[in-house]
Amino acid sequence: MRKRRLKVCLTSLIPIILLLLISACAVEPALEVRPPDPTPLLPTLGIPPTDTPTPSPTPTLQPLTLYLADGLPSGMISLEALGEVILSDDPGAVLWFGPAADVLDDGEILLSTTQVYALAAPFPTLTDDVPLSDLQAYWIGEPQGVLAAVPALYVPDALLQTLTQRWGNPDPARVHAGEERPATETLWETGAWALIPFDSLDPQLKVIQVEGRSPLFKEFTAETDPLTVQYQLVHNPGAGRRPGDALQAVIDAIQPTNRDPDLITTLVMTGVTALVRGTAYRMEVNGVLYPGEMIRDWLIEADLTHISNEVSFYEDCPFPDPTSPRLFFCSDPKYIDLFEYVGADIIELTGNHNNDALYVYGVDVVPFTLDLYDEYGMAYFGGGRNLAEAKSPLLITHNGNKLAFIGCNAFGPDFAWATEDGGGSAPCEDYQWMAAEVSRLRGEGYLPIATYQYYEDYYDFAAEHHVRDFGIMAEAGAVIVNGSQAHRPKAMAFAHDAFIDYGLGNLFFDQNWVIDMYGNVIIQTSWEIIQRHTFFDGRHLSTELLTAKLEDYAQPRPMTAEEREVFLDELFQASGWISR
After folding, report:
1. What is the pTM (predicted TM-score) of this model?
2. Distance (Å, rounded) from C-alpha 273 to C-alpha 295?
3. Backbone angles phi, psi at 384, to 5 degrees
4. Which domain holds residue 364?
5. 277, 224: one domain
6. Whole-angstrom Cα distance, residue 78 to residue 89?
7. Torsion over CA of 464, 467, 468 and 472, rounded to 10 degrees?
8. Which domain CATH number covers 203?
9. How many CB atoms lie within 10 A of CB 473?
10. Chain-centroid distance, C-alpha 154
11. How far is CA 213 from CA 129, 135, 139, in A?
12. What does the alpha-carbon distance between residue 110 and residue 123 come to, in Å, rounded to a whole number?
């Protein structure tokens, strides 16, 4: 009995015991710790605390899209430089780039740029200028004036649409569009003309003025030129976003213009100058500046003006005798004012009369002459105070264009050549030292310009020895090779990508005419070529031929249109070219 009662009691106590065990095993709770007040305590300035606003979610920025109009000039925009900008086929993209004439009416213009084109013809073309109305008439198939003889006009695709909007539909029989124009040789063979981007001009092509305007001129204004196309980058306000920081990548990718004046260098080069005899006498009578008065504008307009002065200055030079048959010369030092007046920057010293005073008076006048050039800030090449200086090239960098001038004297005489310690011109010898220098300079990024005081004659054609010896410098890498010795202008050529002029004729020298050894009267000694070269962004782009006629034994003047046509036609024929 007692055992049974005990069992009953234990059974009834089990739930109570379990409850007590559970309570005994529970962890005693720690003291309650209040979290810090989310609102920081403020100084007691009576400013009530404010609740921190909940930040709004950042919206995802849509990609920047760019639409490029059809027919953009090749290379005008660098696609690689666009970065993460996405090209779109939708004209309603965030950004639109194309011709200004097609810009959306409500678009925001972000950038304007220009592409300048030039009207070009084969180099031996007699025409210098055409009226804009004649070009427009040619465009629609109604050719008139000199353009009536032009069989075809090649136009880049990028320009076709713009000119069609301006002038109407082109005549497909005459106006030919294409991304690439025909080779220069093809234009020469056919007599066709072309509209060419300024930065793609070729010295073997002649730039034709339109209404007296040319992109080769310093006063050229692109915005008002009929052959300039303006392009614009536009923000489409209906696209739903702003361009943002990516806009700069687009701007940087676009070429601002293909005719940056800060990359252009113009160089004028001239023929024989000898301020002696009849020319010097007229300077004494009419003033030292008299010879340059009629052509000064041509010379001072250029960035660099070259004068090949064959005769040195001598302080004791006698008063000039215009009838003297004597062929030993010197010039009064005051005559240098003429060079300053016409803006001479570069003096060539290859002349065969540069040290006649050494032979006649026993005085080396070259150092005095070079000191005078130094005083007037005129650089020089082709001669020097000694042989090493005479052979040294003249290096000039202008607007990023690196030009190197180098010259030599093939003719002599011996006393005209510099020696180890005496002044004079650089002797040509076998031409190889000069060719090596030209090659070296070209390899260093310079555009070499080589000149010769070559063997004189009174013919307009180039003999076999001219072609051989001038070709040495062209093959070595010269971009221009000139003969500075010629008293009568001579033939020209293009070889090895160089422009070669075998002789420019006189500039300031008294040969109104001469009688040759056969008794022929040569009046062409009064005909003069003045070259005007244009360089752009490290390239030789163009050569222009300015023509003058010597009068009064001293003063050249611009030729009339009729005189110029006769002169150029003779030169082109002597060059083996067909005048057009």
Report:
1. 0.88
2. 14
3. 180, -175
4. 264-574
5. no
6. 17
7. 170
8. 3.40.190.10
9. 31
10. 23
11. 8, 13, 19
12. 40
